[in-house]
## 1
Amino acid sequence: MSRVLLICPDKRPGLEILSDGIPLALAGFLGKPLIDHALDALAKSGVTAVRVLASDRPAEIRTYVMNGAPWGLSLEVVPEGSELTPGAAAEKHAAFQPDQVLTLDTLPQAPDLPVLRDAASWFAAHTALLPLLAPRQVGAREASPGIWLGLRARVHSTAVLNAPCWIGPHSIIQAGAVVGPQAFIEGDSIIDAHATVESSIIGARTYAGSMTCVRDSIAMGPTLLNWKNGSLTRITDSFLLSSLEQTRDPATHLPARLLALLVLILTSPILLLALITSVLRRQPFLEKLHASLLGEPGHPRTSVAYHQFPAFRSSLRRWPRLWRIVTGHFAWTGNPPLTAPEASALEGEFERLWLHTPPGLFTAPEAEGCTAPWDASAHAHAALFACQPTPAWRWRIIRHALSRLTITSTTTPAHEH
């Protein structure tokens, strides 16, 4: 029986970007938290019992590692007031009778390779450990030598991947993007069309905008750290670099609901126009649909009925949705409403971001040129809007929708909700 004391890092100079919101032990590293890789290696080496010493947010570490069952280990997390040296830890926990005392400054897979010495070592460790760690990821595949794709990662056919590179689970690489060499994209991230990522790390749930160029840097949401010189920059333009952390867009505010009611009253003659059009085209006056809504935390997903005019061949067919803005279920700007089967088909945390903003009369993916059936690009824009519903973006959505309000097509859209 082999027993190990594992000391989690507290803080490391120059790596504060990695511990903004989470302990360093849970920082993403090639698809999994750093501590996950360490526990995986210990379990495979025959270790049976691990005591984790954590001084930085031990409760969060305990929530992640639980009792060690995912790795087949007997594991406990012990809070410490400050990070202990290996010698002090061995002395303080002598009753545990450890065979080894390890720290997360290196991983057991490469004990001589520094990981947390500084930003440069963090980047270099990604390059060195990619061939060792990528094959052990669930669902990962080597698309070509040195190019690894995580579970359900999606890469557009026109994107260019240069080895070595890692595309994390559920991440999306859009058309014309260039990723690599030495580019590491963590999970649930978006590299938009014609963006470039070289010699850099893109943290989990990060959006790199169209035409953005990231080189020699570590990007975590809107924060950019140059790993060569240590310079730190916060990008204020969310269309260049931003976070995809889940946020919950509130229900429509009262002024917006009152405006929708006023518009309904002032434009009520549209009802008569819709009736006449439906008679002339021999189509139903109203079509009833259902939109899936995200339930409150701890509650299941719900749905709400809404209507549209099937006889209209322009955006006026959505006029009845205004009533759902009045009731607070829809918003002026949001994401396209999804049926229950469509919502159930959303995979992973990233795709489910779609539901984190109310269905809209005017929608973000359509303003970016997407049409139903919704593809990966639509998912990317829906997720970004759910996390960054800025006033400027809302206004752009409205402008786009108004410009198309009276544009008709020769046929009714085949898949409009």
## 2
Amino acid sequence: MELSDQLHNKARPIWEKTLNHPFILGIGDGSLPLNKFGFYMRQDYLFLIEYSRLLALAVAKASELTDMGKLAELLHSTLNTEMELHRRFAEKFDISPQALAQTRPAPTTHAYTRHLLYVSYSGTIGEILAALLPCQWGYQEIGRSLAEKEEPPRQPLYAQWVQMYISPEYGALTQEMISLLNRLSKGAGRRERGCMKENFLTSSRYEYLFWDMSYCMQRWPI
């Protein structure tokens, strides 16, 4: 069994809880209040900035040129395509690029991105891949789950959001990262594989917490 299959099975209870979170269900039926989605859009923009730093460090740590190329492609796509799409989509919710740039990280955003950056500085390329994959793979799972339902009649913008994550391009990129993780895991020792599993589960938990943070519109208590 490939490592990705092991990780997916291990994280299944977390991912199933994520798929049934009220934030995700609210996107699916269109009932999620726009202010909660707007909060998510602002925090996700900050996340993408730090995610890009993670990818840049992954490029630097990769030993194979082909791996460097794949990760550099994902970095380019995140910085120059996904973030621009994010800015344009946010404007449909009356969130300007200036408002995105002025957003401060909520506690969970701060904690999740610090986890990713710690792994990127201290871990191997395989450990980094394991930490970043729950985000990319998880969005694909969410997109597929929501796409199986009828489009939300009350909020067509949510339907547009779902379409981003079920596109063939997004699916192909996700599969590339899964394949790279599996290949890297074959040369990993016991300790490294253990770290990869722990990183994957920790990031999966943070993915759930990110949705919960957005639903509650989490603020610093003091």
## 3
Amino acid sequence: MTKEVYVIGSYQGQFKKWADKSHKDLTREAYLGVLKDVGWDKGDDIQFGWYSNVSMPTYGQGSIAGQVCMLPLLREGLFPERVPIINVEGACASGGIAFLGAWKDILSGQCDVSLAIGLEKLYNPQATPEQLFKMFEMGMDVFNPEEWVKIYEDAAKLVGKEFKRGKDRTVFMDVYAIQASYHMWKFGTTQRQIACAASKSHHNGTLNPNAQYRFEVPVEQIMQDREVNYPLTRSMCAPLSDGSAAAILCSGEYLKNLPSRIQNRAVKVLGVGAAGGKHRSLDEPSCTKFAGERAYKMAGVGPQDIDLAEVHDAVAFSDLFEAEMLGFCPVGEGGKLAESGETSIEGRIPLNTSGGLVSKGHPIGATGLSMIYELVTQLRGEAGARQVKNAEIGLADNGGGSMGFDDATCIVSILQKTN
């Protein structure tokens, strides 16, 4: 019999540039925050932990990041002794992978309670832009960069652009710009449609107290903003962020013995799908499609059953493209979907009610778990001004790393309201 898995605790702190907070500070915040959400003072019942982070090696701490940052909590008796912690690093998908690990813990029957926690400090006043961009490129093939350079150069020429590397630019934004330009060339997608997606997300960010950017940005202003790489402007791109998020998962058997106040706020994990990337052509579907199909199959639902989704919009173009890959609209019609208003909070398929990465922020190791937090909050009916009416089923799409024009990995999670 397949075990039932539930999220009983979820937390996200405010995303911003936290110059005065350390990795240990952010870890403490997320851990105590998720305990408080369950209603616990200590995590005595936690049997396994998954710790998500990407940037800590640039600060000099590698290998045992989670153990190091959880140690003060262990010493204070807040985190149980001898609990194994698995460190996870999968570029921008790290938080989703941590959630996947905790879910598998419960599903396998190995334990009844598992923790997933993620955090990031991308804002480092001592680091140069060159050092920061170099860290991002660790999410690519550093052994044979000539392979992806050739892929990007050829694709750029196809759409009348030039791909070039430099100390003052990040490859990821340039690659997104090439993909967006190709989509515009092939399907007639417009820069305005991408701006519509960004404006929608910035509006949603004004309703989220944890968002890094909490101001409206009209469509015309987005189009006139400083160009990063056409068609992308600054307002279409996720900012550098610090922050943390966490989730506590448990088995159905364990949940039955918890107080009703916890049972009534539990959210069921219907399914989680994962897929790996490859050097795909621009006409092939991305690994999001395959991760999504696996999650749908496991959950026993389809795109038509999803009431809201958090999709990985490191740039606003991804809001369009991921909607296509997840089946919310036909391939090539993501721009029309964004422009139609159907992805707004009141629309047919609300996307990124949190503000998405472009407004909420993108602290890499925490991003996937912040998506889970948004779904849990919505499905509990606790999202306040950004609440989606009658939300029953939500989807989180967390991608990371780059293999040519594909993500290196993608995790799609589907959650369901239980009460």
## 4
Amino acid sequence: MSNRKENRFFSWFKKKENNKDAVTLIKNDKENKKKSLLSPKNKDMTKIIINKKEIKTSILGSLRNCFNKTKISFRNKIKSIFFRKKNVFNLEELEEQLLLSDVGLKTTDQIINEIRKETNYLNQNNNIFLYNLLKEKMLNILKVVEKPLDINVDKLFVMLIVGVNGVGKTTTVGKLAYFYKSIGKSVSVVAADTFRAAAIEQLQEISSKHSIPISFDSYKTDPASLVFKAIHEAKKSKINILIIDTAGRLHNKVPLMEELKKIKRVIKKIEGIIFNETIVVIDASIGQNSINQVKLFNEYLGLSGIILTKLDGTSKGGIIFNLANKFKIPVQYVGTGEKITDLSYFKSSDFVKEIF
């Protein structure tokens, strides 16, 4: 049943024909569908499936509308290089624009050298060909890190979410929990950021609003101890997914990073769970500083994934290419706004299509 819900909820990544079929099915069997969908378990899905407007702005539909700044700074400027009236293409201009868009020096050099090599080999200088070649090279970089989470397991699935202060980590935990609940999973969250009282209150508010179970304790409680208790409680309650929010910490502060390592050690000792996911949340608008954050979190914790937030507010979305090319760590989700539904699976072809 959860797979069926997931297919509807992720309608944006299906073919248009499938979307039309879903709407037609709802219309033809309206009464039966309403009875099923209006049950308490499915109340969050009702708006999305029955209301066409909700379908368009669903969790995975928001990606289409979040790149206005990136489109202006990246797509329009790149197109101007390829399709100006004089019809003269300059690789140096392209190189400069990629650097200004935070694609990064090494990744930019790689792209430029590959284009130069291929165009020389084919003796091809047609601008349309070159423009499509650029898209192909950039898509190839992102394909490597397109790896959705596989949560269809019969044990408790534990996710540890880490990141520095201010990247939207706690908000992202709430979005993840809301999404998984909406596709039929039982979800619980852990407010393990016990160093910032406001973080506990923030996650409590999100959990209360969307009826998501939460484990928390008082300010300055040992987070590793809290996580240990929360996991055992989740196992008893037959929870499918447990998402752990951690304290935002400076990536260059060793004692704070050691605290995260302690939490991870505690989780690994618990039997009867699936724990393969340590995911860092990165603010897409901070540019090259995100490279240092991913580097150090990965060295200390061994990251399994990246979630990029605030893509709706940056004109330099090119940082995702630099991160992908340098670390090869899966980019699993992108945050595209402040609403609880503003979270999208990362799909390389759709991302490249949107920015070009």
